[in-house]
Amino acid sequence: MSDQAPVVSRSVLLPFIIVTSLFALWGFANDITNPMVSAFKKVLELDNFRASWVQFAFYFGYFTMALPAAIFAKKYSYKKSIVLGLGLYAMGALLFYPAARWESYGFFLLSLYILTFGLAFLETTASPYIMSLGSEETATRRLNLAQAFNPIGALGGLIVAKQFILSRLQVEELGVEAYAALPPAEQATIRVADLQVIRDPYVLLGVVVIAMLVLFLAVNMPEKAETSGNLGIRAAIRRLWRQPRFAGGVGAQTFYVGAQIMCWTYIYQYAESIGISNADAVPFGISALVIFLIGRWIGTYLLKFVSGGQLLLYFAVGASVMCLLTIFLVGSWGLYALVGISFFMSVMFPTIYGIALEGQGEDAKFGAAFLVMAIVGGALMPTLQGLILDIGGDGYTDARLLGVPEVNFSFILPLLCFLAVGIYGWLVFSRWQENDAPVVGAPPRP
C-alpha cells in the first residue's frame, strides 16, 4: 500500500481535530449508558428482558433518524447537521430531569431515544466528513484515526458511571434481597434518591453538549456546496444497494454493533455471576476499553500493510476464539476472555464503514445513513441476550445450557455475529476489491 498521500493534510487539520472531538462525545454517551441496564434493573426491580429496553431505546434511535439525518446533510451542510445533532443530544440528556422527577422508566427510555436522534445526526455526518478530508486512498486510515478517540470518550463515560452513579446507588449498597425486604415507604425513598443519582450526570452532559453546540456555530468548516438542488435519493440508493461490498457492509455492521453492545453491556452481569458487584466490575469495563483503544491504534497501523478485508477476517477469527473461551471457561478466566474480545472488536466498525463507502462520492452521505441505521443491531441483539438470561429466572446462573450457566451460554450470540463479520472480510479481499474504481454515476465527493 502506498503511503505517499498524507492521512490528514495541514490545510484541514483544525476541522479534523474539531470534528474528531465528536467521536469522543458520542463514545461517552454510549458507555455511560451500558451500565444503566443493570442499574435500572435493580432500582426499578425489572427482569433482564425489560432492563434490556435501555439498549433498545438507545440504539433504535439511530435506526429511526439516520436516513433523515443523511437527507438533511445532503440538502443543507455537514455543519448544520452537526449543530442539529448536538441540539437533539442535549435535549435528550436534559429530559432525564423530568424523567427522574416523575419516576417513569418509560420517560427515561424516551429521553435516551431522543438523545440518540442527536447521535444519529452526528455519526451520519462526522464519519463521511472525516473521510472527505483528503484522498480516497487514505480515507479508511483517516476514519480509523478519528475513531481511535471514541474509546477515550467511552472511558470517561465508564469512569463517571462508576464514580457518580453505580458507587452511589443505595440499592447497590443494600443488595437486591435486602432492598426487596424493606417496607414500601423506605423502598420509595431509596428509589427517588437513586433515580436522582442516575439523572445528574446526564443533565450535566446536556450542559456540556450545549457548550459544544455554541463552539460549532462559531467554527468555519470547509465544505463544497452541492451543485444541484436535486437530492437524487432514489438513484443514490439504487447505486449503493447494487454493490455487494456496500450491502454486505451494512449487514456486517449490524452484526458487529450487536456483538459489541452485548459484550460491553453484559460484562456486568457476567461479573456478577461470579460474585463481583456492578461498581467493582467497572474496572473490567475500563480495561476492555483500554484494550479496545490499543487495538484501534495497532489496527490503524496494520492497515499500512494489509487490506481492510484481511484485517477484518483476522480480527473476527480472534474475537470468535475469545468468545468460545468466554462461554466455556466458567469463572475469572472467562471474564478475562470477555475483556479480551475488545482488542479484536477495535477495528471492525471503522474498517467496515470505510470499505463500504470507499469510492461512493456524494452517495456516501446516504451510504453513511444505512451504515448508521445498522447500529440497530445494538438494539436487537442485547434484547435477545436478555431473553436467554431470563430462561431460568431473573438471576444469571439459574439454568445450565451446554453445561455452562446461561450467562456464559448467552455469548453464543456475539460468536455468531463475529463469524458473520469474518465472512464479510473474507469476501471483501477475495472477491470484492476495496480499491475498485469509483462507482459510475456517483457524484464526486466534495
TrEMBL record:
This protein's major location comes to membrane
Q: Where in the cell is it found?
A: Cell inner membrane
Q: Which domain of life is it from?
A: Bacteria
Give an example GO molecular function: fucose:proton symporter activity
**What does the record say about its membrane topology?**
Multi-pass membrane protein
A matching Pfam family: MFS_1
Q: What keywords would UniProt list here?
A: Cell membrane, Membrane, Transmembrane, Transmembrane helix
What residue ranges are annotated as transmembrane? 12-29, 49-70, 82-99, 105-122, 143-165, 202-219, 246-269, 281-299, 311-330, 336-356, 368-389, 409-429
This entry carries the following GO cellular component terms, namely: plasma membrane
Q: Which NCBIfam families match?
A: fucP
Q: What is this protein called?
A: FHS family L-fucose permease-like MFS transporter
